Amino acid sequence: MKVVVIGTGYVGLVSGACFADFGHQVTCIDKDLSKIEALKQGIIPIFEPGLDDLVKSNVNAGRLKFSTDAKDVVADAEIVFIAVGTPSRRGDGHADLSFVYAVAEELAPLIKGYTVITNKSTVPVGTGDEVAAIIKKHAPQAEFDVASNPEFLREGAAIEDFKRPDRVVVGVESKRAEEVLRQLYRPLFLNETPIYVTNRRTAELIKYAANSFLAVKIGFINEISDLCDAVGANVQEVAKGIGLDKRIGSKFLNAGPGYGGSCFPKDTLALSKTAKDANSPLSIVDTVIASNDARKLSMVDRVVAACGGSVEGKTIAALGLTFKPNTDDMRDAPSLVIIPELQKRGAKIKAFCPEGMREAKNLLNNVEYCENSYDCLEGANAAVIITEWDEFRALDITRISHMLKDKVLVDLRNIYNATEFEGSGIAYSSIGRPQKV
What we know:
By secondary structure, the chain is an alpha/beta fold. It is built from 16 helices and 14 strands.
């Protein structure tokens, strides 16, 4: 099939490369000429494991192309994906749909034959209706359908998620559009992937509901971890005990410094705003949003407490800056709250992150960025693990005990056990677990 993807951000680039790997002819469109030229040269603008090789192999096979000109490729396309950003709108938290609507207006006169215009962007309920109205207004004779096909890609595991998904959600208003999308995803039939077909508005809501539910699980276990601290219980054992219940499941029950990234913060906020506009507020989601904001600040209090009640004049080594490992995404990362707040309280910050430092330099001021973990730890008073990158999981405890002046390590991801630090002289603290076993 001939496929066009508008937008070469995270979702657009991963989706385009994976559709090409399925055997479709894919053209990814972006107005950013420098980005398109870089992609043509094999330079990938984001860090996602395996994506550079996937793009390269499909470009070499002639199935994947990049361009700034949508005119000719849209005219020949059977399906066009809108995969542009929908960030939270300043001031009210609603999703900013200006990019989506601008694409719809520009696409309208380019449609020549029957085309399924499909939203991959995360959009509120009713956005597909507006996209259809815009296209109809600017191209009354165009033959098209508008569909919703939300993505469920985890950063750091996006290719696996795309090729072996739990399900593919398709929201359509016609059988013809449904058949086009079924044909597009035909390669997944071999894996017996469920293709869940519903109407467009339901599909739009599924995406927000799914992300918000996962955010609720994170918020829940984070608050349980505080209770564990108060009563001397172990949050990891609590999580395992409840996660073995098949009705609950074990995923997203890891206590930490709060969720971040490109999806959960903006999607929970957008769903909350949509619900309030519909006079059907979601108090659980509202509470999770507030709890998550407070969670990040409370992590600062933990670090300060571990340092004896003050970080004034002390150097803190921050390990991990991205919102999760295996990505360079800094959007709404806990580090963007924790580090500035520590600085406000008088701390000096050294930092190291395997993939996040390039973007972090644009977001965090007065930070000393280091070459590796040990360079970061050397001479610091205390260390805090903010993101659970694999290379932080096997630090030489004896070595770091000689590097940290005050011998304090705060583990906000629970990647170590207290027993590992016995006899090291390091004061180790974690989240929701007894500090000594």
